[in-house]
Specification:
Length: 274
């Protein structure tokens, strides 16, 4: 029962922080200091994969019509625009896929620590504030997903590479990139959601191949519970974010990241002394 409660809490944290630009890694390393799953390392790694898959499925469900190029409700032009959108998503996914495959183990070994996470939380928090202040009163050049050209999506893909450093936030890096390149907040956020689909499915597949599926029935139950919780919370978080940015900017997330970054530094700095 206690293990199931831990799974629910971790699923909630993942569901919220995966889509808001505040770094799921930064939150999970703090939460996991107090809530640790009492299981094998392979199971914990697989659990982290499964809750990400739950989060991704929320995007697929919410945007299924927009992402489906075969919908009978779409005109031929709309179907073609949907196919073009997928091409753009795949192009933007290439840089992170290449760098991730080449340096995944190196990044985990050298950058997965509280100092790096805290610093990236703070740095990108400051960037959000700076970018938003620079864009105050400016009309975005890119107001629809169809306005994204190949050069812009490729550059957004380069920004996504930055998110391989723990604490950066994949959504945070790509949203900042989209804003800098002239996209509206809604376009930057939606494209970030879509960009997560191949990237996170690919990363999840690699983990599944690496760790396999040799788990007990009880462990499979916990994996399913975590996936469902992450899906439900992600659904709400995505709806909230898209509603929020219609009338607000991203500065509040920047301030939040800065505060969280200092909390991470303070907490782990103090605990390392004892």
């Amino acid at each position: 029962m206690l293990e199931a409660l831990k799974v629910i809490i971790l699923g909630i944290v993942e569901g919220i922080t995966e889509w808001l630009p505040i770094s799921s890694t930064g939150h999970l390393i703090l939460v996991e200091e107090f809530i640790k799953l009492t299981s094998t390392e392979n199971f914990i790694s697989m659990f982290n994969v499964v809750i990400q898959l739950g989060a991704i499925m929320a995007v697929v469900v919410i945007y299924f019509h927009k992402l489906n190029p075969f919908s009978p409700k779409k005109t031929e032009k709309q179907k073609m625009l949907t196919i073009q959108l997928w091409v753009k998503v795949l192009i933007a996914s290439i840089p992170a896929a290449i760098i991730g495959l080449l340096f995944d183990d190196y990044i985990d070994e050298h950058f997965m620590n509280y100092v790096v996470v805290a610093c990236t939380l703070i740095i990108y928090g400051v960037l959000f504030i700076i970018v938003e202040k620079r864009h105050e009163g400016m009309e975005p050049k890119i107001k629809r997903l169809s306005d994204l050209d190949l050069k812009t999506v490729a550059l957004i893909g380069v920004f996504q590479v930055l998110s391989l450093i723990p604490g950066t936030s994949r959504s945070g890096a790509t949203i900042i990139g989209g804003l800098i390149l002239g996209a509206s907040r809604s376009v930057a956020a939606e494209f970030t959601f879509f960009l997560a689909i191949p990237v996170m499915f690919g990363a999840s597949l690699l983990k599944i191949v690496k760790f396999g599926l040799a788990f007990t029935a009880g462990q499979f139950g916990l994996l399913l519970l975590g996936c469902l919780v992450s899906f439900g919370v992600s659904y709400v978080a995505i709806k909230f974010l898209m509603g929020y940015i219609k009338k607000n900017d991203f500065k509040v997330f920047g301030y939040y990241r800065i505060v969280l970054g200092f909390i991470v530094l303070l907490y782990f700095g103090i605990t390392s002394l004892f």
